[in-house]
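Quick illustration, no need to memorize.
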Amino acid sequence: MVKKSKLIIDKKERRALGVHLTSVDIFLKYIFPEIKNKLNEYIWVDLYAGEGNLLLPILNEIPLEERVNFFENHIYLFDVQAEMVTKCIKNANSYGIPIEIAKKNIKVRDNLETFPEFLKNNELPIFHVTNPPYLYLGYIRKHKETQKYLKYFKADNEGYQDLYQIAMINDLRNNIENLIYIIPSNFLFGASVSNKFRQDFLKYYKILKMIIFETKIFEFTGTNICIGFFKRKKVPKAEPIEFNGVKFKNRDEMKSKNYILKPKFKYRAGSEFDEFLENYRTRNPTKVKYYLLKEEVSRNKGNNQISVIDANNYKNNEYKRLNLQVNDVLKEKIESNILYVQTVDKGSIEGRVGLSVIAEDFGIKGIYVSSNTYRTHPIQIFFKPQISIDCQILLKNYFNFILEYFRKELDSEFLTTYKYSNAEYTRKYLGLTQVRGLIETFPIVKIDLKSKNRLKSLILKKDFDEILKVLKNLKSMSE
């Protein structure tokens, strides 16, 4: 059971500080076994220590008569909040460290702004173990109480997206060799939020191991986290990084997997899906457009009545239905494009992301956007050149089969985690760029009747390898 902090921080303040207090249990179970044979070889530092629960438990392994001396020479703890430092000092005292001695090595300091240079003067190398603050730049910009953190993202830090990235890049710039970080799992699986940072950081560090949690770990946040064990490379190099990852789907279910992160795909885990999109993109893919927008309807008013739902008006578990008056051109466009994409898992197996038929799910012809577009709403898809209804049905079945195949093979890691919930699986988000990329692997324009029937049969049989052969053959014929 995760131990609750005795320090009371209200939700808004906790969010504003990016604070997620670390349990002693997390340290003892997942981190300590990796370092217990190295305790005398390093100075153990936590620059964002909170109550000190990531390092102070080390003292239980040190004989009581040696404990004070070990603390003085091997443990340094810092935090930006004075009240947390006070708590940390009291915590150290509970392990037998006199208050005055504890105060010498536990200090108030803003280590996101500057690194404590004096630590580098120690004869022993630094080993940094920490659960840094994490707060996404988008959130920081939107809230007055967090805008003070914008200063960390200027100059050399421009382009980074989270406070934890600032913490890690500071360690890189100060040549810290060994790191253990508890960070959001978007470090591995995020796209735009982490691409630049991974490319910069993993040129200098290799990953020794990752422990990944797809279950709630911290009391006050649903953010999925991972514990990363990093070691600095002897020579900086952009190269594939291979490591073992252990993933917990819940407290008891664990699976181990070998990961290979490739520079070509910005070191993002699950890049096998991206490789498929790249390798099987058709020569002349159909163009894809999203959304039936209010502006387009206004430009194409006419005498034809067409039934739609309003994606911006969702009440009592259903979308509001409307009848639009449109001209012949727009009527034909709406009625001949029957598919929509659901980009967010609903939390049940039947509600996973993918393509579906508008009329089957909503009993209408189109999905209207009356105000702002949102990527998480159902989104109607428009093809140019237009493709037949029969081809769209085949595309839907192909798309959903390929998507589910990779979700199973890659444990959905190529998708973005939408949010923590109590669903039977971790809910994921499918990016519109990924939707377009997968559609572009389907040879809509060049497919002949024989290949079409072959694909239909193979999708029913769920024969991925044979589908690849069909795609390869059609691609080679078009080149």
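The two ends are 59 Å apart (CA to CA).
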